[in-house]
Structures are given as C-alpha cells and as structure tokens.
C-alpha cells in the first residue's frame, strides 16, 4: 500500500488546504510525509496491483472490500553491505499506525488440526485448535466522490484459555508464553516473489485469511435483507448475486473447499446446490506461468492441518474426473493431467487446478499472458470450457502514479486538456493534438528535467555520488529475478564501459544506470546478481577514464515510496524479461505515464503498450514468444553466442576472471556457469539485439526535441493502462455489478 497521508489528502481534495495550514504552522508538508512508514504487506506487482484496485474500486463507487493479513513485519528492509543484500525486519508498526482501527467486536474463530467425525451423511470437524482473527479496518477513499471503502486486515490472537483448558495442571507461565505459537500466524510476510515455498506456517496464513474472511462475508450476507431466513435456516440461493469473490492468484484457493465446508457441513445444503453456489461466487486471476511459482501443497500437510478440507478436495476431484471420463472415455493421460491431485513422489494438490474447477471465470493479466494461459499452461481446461477463460489487462491508479508522484506533469496536462483525465485516463489521447506544439514540448522536457535534478540531489544525499542530471536516467527497478534479466542490463553496462575505455574520445551519450529491487532471502542467484551489479558499479564509478559519462547505482530498499521518487525522474524504462515470462508488469505502465520511453521485449503488457503507442514509439527488441519456442526446440546453446560476439565474450571473460572482484577472482563463477549451462531465460540470445537497440536509444536522446515528441506520444497512449479501466472490465464481465460515477453528498449535507 505504501504511504497513506498524501493519497488521502489528494482523494479528499484537501491537499492544498493542508499544505497551506502546515506551512502556517512553520512546518514543511513534504518533510512530514517522509516520516510515515510504507505499509509493505506484499512482495511485488501482485500486492501493488491489489492496492491500485482498491483505489479504483472506491473511485468507481463499487461496494468492495480488500481482505488480507495484518503482518506485524512486512517485506524486509534491504540494506546493501559491501555490495551484498542484507535483510532487516520491517518493524512498520513500531510507532503505531494512525490509519487503522481495531474492530474487536467482529473477532472470529479459525480452526486448525483436529479430526473428522462421520455420522451417517454428515461430517463434523472436531478436537481442533482455535486461533482468533481480529480485524483491523483501514479506510480506502475514492477520488473526490465522498466514497470510503474498507480494507480489512486480520491479526492472529490466541484465545484466553489457550493451552489452559486441557488440564495441563502446573505450567501456567509456559501456557501463557505459548500464546505466541498461535499469534505467529500474522507475524511475518513470506518474502518470495514468483516462487512457491511449501511451509506449514504459510499454509496456516493462507487458510487463516480465507476462513476469517468467509465468515465475515456470510455474517454480512445473513444480516442483509438478501439473507432471508425462513425460521429454520438462511436461503443461500441469492448468494452469488450478492457476493463476488476474486481470488488474487492461488494464495486464497482454500476459500473454495472452505465455502463448501460451510455450506455442506454447517448450513446443511446438498452438495450439488452448494457446489453451484460456490462456483458462481468465485473467480480466479492467474498471475504467473513460471512452474516454480505454482502452488502445489503436499497432501500429508493438508491432511494434518485441515483434514476436512482434504476430504472435500478429494470429493471435488472425484466428481471433476468422473465428468471428464464421461467426455473422454479411456483417456487416462488427460485424467492425470487435469486432476487436482498430482501423483508420483509426494502426492500434491495443484491449487491452480482447484481454482479453475471451482470458479466461473479465469483470467490472465495481459493479452499475451491470457493466450499462454489458454493455449499452454491450462490448455486441457480451456478446451473443456473456453468461455470460462478471459483477459483483464492490468492497470495502475493515476491518482498515486501521476497526481501524487508527478504534480508538475499532472498540472501541465491539466492546463492542456482539463482535469477530467484523472477519472477517465482515456482523455490523455487529446494530447496527440500537442505533439508538434513547441511550447508544450519544451514544458514537458522542463518538468522531466526538474524531476531529474530533484532525484539527483536525493541520490547525492543518500549515496554520496555526484550525478550528472543531463545524463540519460536509465532505470531498471523491480524484484530481482533471473527471468527479469537484470543480468542482461549488467552485461550492457560492462559493454558500454569497455567501449569508453577502448576509445575515450568517442562520442558517448552520458548515462546514469539505476538498478533496484529486492531478492528473496533464499534465492542465491538473485543475491549474486545484486553483488555483481555493485561490483561493476564500484569499478565503473571509480575509473577516471569514464568520469561522468557512465555512473551505475544500485538503489537500496526499493519500495512504493522510492518508486514515487525515481519513476518521474526516469528517461528510459527497462522492461526486458524473456518473452513469455512476465505475465503483465505494471511498472512498465507507471514509467509510460510519467514520460519515460521503454526499451523492452514483446512480453506482458509491453505488447499492448506498443499496440497503443505504435511500435515505432517504443524500443522493442529481441525474441518473440515464437522465437523462444523455436530456440527451445533446437536447444539453446549459449556457447555459440559467446563465440560469435566479441563484446559479449569480453564482458563475460572479465566477470569470470575477477576483473570486477580482484580480491576473489572466482566470486562470480556460479553466475557465469549458469549463463553458459542452465540459463532458462536465454540472456545471451537477446544480448546482441539489446545492445543494438540501446544504440538507437542513445542516438535519439541526442535529439532532445525528437525524444520529447516520442515521450508525448507515449503519455497520450497511456490511457488504457488505468486500473479504473481494468476494474470496469472485471465489474462488467466477471462480477456483474454496476459502477457509479455519482458523487454521493458529503456527510454534512442532508440527504433525501
């Protein structure tokens, strides 16, 4: 979520009044804003997407709730020590959180472990351990519409009789200390992005948020006029018409068997009725195609922690497989491929399969990704129910990612086309009329330059390096992952460095290369990549031959509040994942909206950005999905590229020989060995095209006017990438709810 203060002032239309009041008190609003901690309760794009969606849902007047866990410790703070990433706990609640309100009156029990008792047709889950879920509510204001929605985050609390009810005669002190075991559930965020780690505590977290949320939803449904009760029990027929639940990836997949358990075991609905309601309630968004990211929980673990849920999953699977067998008799391989249970070695539950079978809609997050989901990852399911599969291209909120972070540009745009674009970003297309307006071109360039100067001052303060603000700010910020190919950027830096040294007199367009992002603490290769970037920076930044032509900075502790500073100052946005690996990306959209040009592959939403702006207004390079597939068929041979490309060979030889790590010459042998022998993401295959494309970037940067005209064309084409548009599509195609552009009257005005 990042910080809340400035976003709240903007959405309430109070920013100028507050700035003025604070100024009159002799204080500086910007200094005050810097004191607030980021709420970093997610890992990367997936968590930030949810935050943008909350802003858009409130702005569109949807009665929507965001549910999650109130982690005591969010994503770790990253320190760089001697070039290495070091993690520190993110104690974000240390000074309290003024935006949250605890709601103990809505506290709910969540059950774990135990066993299942069968009596006749009914099942009872008994002898469980209970943990209480305490909700904390944070207001989510819409933009200038007097609407405030709720984000409800659950915190784990031990019941007061925890470990004391079971006559454990003496050890009262130990029993009270053991309360921590229950409360550990909401202690800390697992810091993996695009990687599945099958830990028991993580499964507990996933079920905890699901069980508390579903009880909360059903309580609200029963209290409303729709949950009409006929003295005996609630009629749930209208449930899917009143409730839509969107599963943000498979992390909340246990909601499907949990809702079935509530309907069948507690509310005594017949299975078929319960299943029909469940399917019509849930929809599933897939966020990644990387096999190592797909959740596959061991059956043994689920059986221990949630025995009744395992039985329900088995029953769902049996009925699902019976249906497929009736359509495809004797096709045992299809049954194996489509089962929710993976046999072989340890039996596992494929959570994505559970989500597809238990939902009425499945979507990817960019056109190319949704195609890959349909034709490759889940092709058997798409063949069975093609109408279930959709696309919903991601978006970003223009409130935080333009008005808040780039007021200069926002104001300049408003002068030209009015303020309507803030709620309807498609109006940015009107800027096409000003692509040849010399004054506007100069003003756009001036705003960018001011943002760069401001960020350069920040960098000099934080990193003690002198930055040339007229150099091209070439920025690559996102989680560190092999598929995102920060290594390819690193090889380009080494190549530029070698060119400057070979011919110091040659015309070189000065660059400040900024790379930032966190590596999962257990991801060895990602941590080596950070160390390599810092080792290269050390050499480049201290070589007198290079001087101010090339500077390399690793941006420490990349997070929302830092993104708000670096993105408006960026000239070149790096979006260089191997085609077919980045589901969408949203950073790409933030840079486009803030006047950066994109160098990128035809991957994720880059494809649609090129479609909107015209491919000639992005720097597109490298293999397409088809080329990657073709190369896989032939077999990727890294050695071949190394032998053919002298500059690549030189760069790799330097890294391998210890040129960048003279005290430990073989420090980077793991990295080089990976690039040669098991690089799934084919860095060498795109290196040549990347370097050539970067030459075109430098060439255009020399012509400031032509560069800025291309920037304006990009901003004018960014309208599609508002999360408002994304949410309108979810509302129309999946949730079947109407959004409203009405401004409800403020609370001080009497209503009809």
Automatic annotation (TrEMBL):
Its EC number is 2.4.1.1. Coiled coil: none annotated. GO terms for cellular component: cytoplasm. PROSITE patterns: PHOSPHORYLASE (PS00102). The modification N6-(pyridoxal phosphate)lysine is found at residue 590. InterPro entries: Glycg_phsphrylas (IPR011833), Glyco_trans_35 (IPR000811), Pyridoxal_P_attach_site (IPR035090). One of its GO terms (molecular function) is pyridoxal phosphate binding. Allosteric enzyme that catalyzes the rate-limiting step in glycogen catabolism, the phosphorolytic cleavage of glycogen to produce glucose-1-phosphate, and plays a central role in maintaining cellular and organismal glucose homeostasis. This is Alpha-1,4 glucan phosphorylase. The lineage of its organism: Eukaryota, Metazoa, Chordata, Craniata, Vertebrata. The gene is Pygl.
